[in-house]
Amino acid sequence: MEAFFHQYLQFSRTFTKKINEHIADLDLYQSQWSIVYYLQKNKAATLVEISNYFQVEKPTITRTVNRLEDRQLIEKVASADKRERRIQLTEKGLDVYDQASAVIDAFEKQLVEEIPKDDLEITFRTIQRLLFKINKEESV
Amino acid sequence: MEAFFHQYLQFSRTFTKKINEHIADLDLYQSQWSIVYYLQKNKAATLVEISNYFQVEKPTITRTVNRLEDRQLIEKVASADKRERRIQLTEKGLDVYDQASAVIDAFEKQLVEEIPKDDLEITFRTIQRLLFKINKEESV
DNA sequence: CATATATAGTTACCTAGGTAACTAATTTTC
DNA sequence: GAAAATTAGTTACCTAGGTAACTATATATG
Question: What percent of chain B has a predicted confidence (pLDDT) above 70?
Answer without folding.
Answer: 98
